[in-house]
Amino acid sequence: MASSSSSWFALLLFVGLACTAANSNVLSAGYYEKTCPNVQGVVRSVMAHRVAGEPRMAPAVLRLFFHDCFVNGCDGSVLLDATPFSASEKDAEPNDSLTGFTVIDEIKSILEHDCPATVSCADVLALASRDAVALLGGPTWAVPLGRKDSRAAADPESTKNALPSPKDNLEELITMFAKHGLDASDMTALSGAHTVGMAKCESYRDRVYGIDNEHYIDPSFADARRQTCPLQEGPSDGKAPFDSQTPMRFDNAYYRDLTAHRGLLSSDQALYGGHGGMQDHLVEMYSTDGEAFARDFANAMVKMGNIPPPMGMPVEVRLHCSKVNY
């Protein structure tokens, strides 16, 4: 039997070897077939249990995946806590309301027991976001796997600049998504993630009070939203669902809201102006054809999930999602 010191040295050697450079792996759906064959079952089981007890965890996990991939690629960096030596993406203004971290930690803990130092936190997040959509009645898809976790998070300013703003116009949104290899059609389909979840009052205040006069808003909708979002900021500021019809069902109601000028955020309504053109036609199609939306959303999620970290970034398989290996 090996001594404890020898075992500890072996672990350190393994962790050291696990630190590689980004872009060295090709993603594939069968990446863990031999090394951790039950990974998808573990993720699905934990997600089903947690969402059954707290449904809001589904949109929360889905949002985590978006906010991870848009900042230095899908590398699990959004999960890292701050340290005395490094900042955390969690502390950036767009991320201060993120939740769902405990769900990812629970999945990772089980996988570390079953398949030590094998499944990356970035892959856990990719799988969990897919299952979050399916659990709310949306589509499912084969998730390419083999991502690695970054050993550092982006600073708060870089994080903020990398994420879309609730006040972005159509041109700004298209430019933002294009930086990640996603075209206007991908952007329109991915925006349908707002068929579930909530937004803070500060994100939609300008729209419902007419301060954003670029996009027409249905007056009755604006009045309803003002009831929980006072003009003056204060402790009573409330959240509102993106989709007031079926806020916890992953369907195409978001697009029906847009065609009725009932988009909650300015960046939502920016997708549809009612003036014709390719962009409006795409929103109109999704508003009447839920299957087309589900298909295009699934394809766009795979495409977004393939956004790699910057070339040469140090990566690893983290043993704990909130901190790097030492």
Automatic annotation (TrEMBL):
Cofactor needs: heme b; Ca(2+)
GO terms for cellular component: extracellular region; plant-type cell wall
Binding site residues for heme b: 194
Segment forming the signal sequence: 1-22
A single BP term in Gene Ontology: hydrogen peroxide catabolic process
Known function: Removal of H(2)O(2), oxidation of toxic reductants, biosynthesis and degradation of lignin, suberization, auxin catabolism, response to environmental stresses such as wounding, pathogen attack and oxidative stress. These functions might be dependent on each isozyme/isoform in each plant tissue.
Entry protein name: Peroxidase
Taxonomic lineage of the native organism: Eukaryota, Viridiplantae, Streptophyta, Embryophyta, Tracheophyta
